[in-house]
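Example 9 (inverse folding). The structure is encoded as follows.
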């Protein structure tokens, strides 16, 4: 387990202070998921030349808002004048897109690469920086994830981060459609941007 010493003042405090803030927001099971995502993100970051401190912080905060009540998200969508279309979705979409706004204001993290990694960690996006790709994939393949295909997802991602993104985009869209769930437009855009590109 890697415990980074933060040096870049991206979060105004120590890693332990960030852990304390996050553990106040999350039940233990979710908190432990977040720790595993951080570790997986550090591994993917090292392999893909991504800044380790940003990978650690983004991994730790990516689900910061996951256990907030719907009213908090609805209030934030209105207060910060986010796209009103968001009101048609729910926690699955809000905890990333709206969660980033709460992280900015409550944790004083202003690094846009980190905030975008949080915003896009559930749906992906057409363009994703290497850090955004690392967080999107770390969340999907952290060691406790157990779904049919996770072993292949880990193999593909170890070989090529972008191919991992394509794998997840395809399988998530498939899952949503098979279960009759609403597809957030960005999830479809992610599929179109990434999946055909990786077919050979
Ligand atoms: O927060 P986590 O559980 O760690 O993981 P996540 O943020 O990737 O959320 C995964 C869930 O989000 C999974 O159940 C599928 C769902 N999801 C992803 N894209 C969409 C979506 N749900 C809806 N309704 N629409 C989407 O486009
Ligand atoms: Fe999440
Ligand atoms: Fe997560």
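The amino acid assigned to each position is listed next.
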């Amino acid at each position: 387990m890697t415990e980074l010493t933060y040096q870049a003042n991206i979060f105004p405090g120590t890693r332990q202070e960030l852990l304390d803030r996050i553990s106040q927001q999350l039940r233990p099971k979710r908190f432990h998921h977040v720790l595993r995502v951080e570790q997986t993100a550090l591994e993917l970051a090292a392999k893909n030349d991504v800044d380790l401190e940003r990978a650690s912080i983004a991994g730790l905060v990516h689900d910061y808002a996951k256990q907030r009540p719907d009213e908090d998200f609805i209030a934030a969508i209105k207060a910060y004048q986010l796209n009103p279309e968001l009101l048609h979705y729910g926690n699955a979409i809000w905890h990333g897109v709206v969660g980033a706004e709460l992280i900015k204001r409550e944790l004083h993290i202003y690094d846009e690469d980190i905030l975008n990694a949080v915003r896009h960690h559930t749906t992906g996006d057409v363009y994703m920086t290497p850090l955004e790709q690392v967080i999107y994939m770390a969340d999907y393949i952290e060691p406790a994830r157990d779904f049919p295909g996770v072993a292949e997802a880990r193999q593909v991602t170890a070989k090529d981060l972008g191919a991992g993104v394509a794998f997840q985009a395809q399988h998530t869209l498939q899952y949503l459609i098979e279960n009759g769930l609403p597809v957030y437009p960005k999830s479809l855009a992610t599929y179109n941007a990434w999946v055909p590109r990786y077919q050979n």
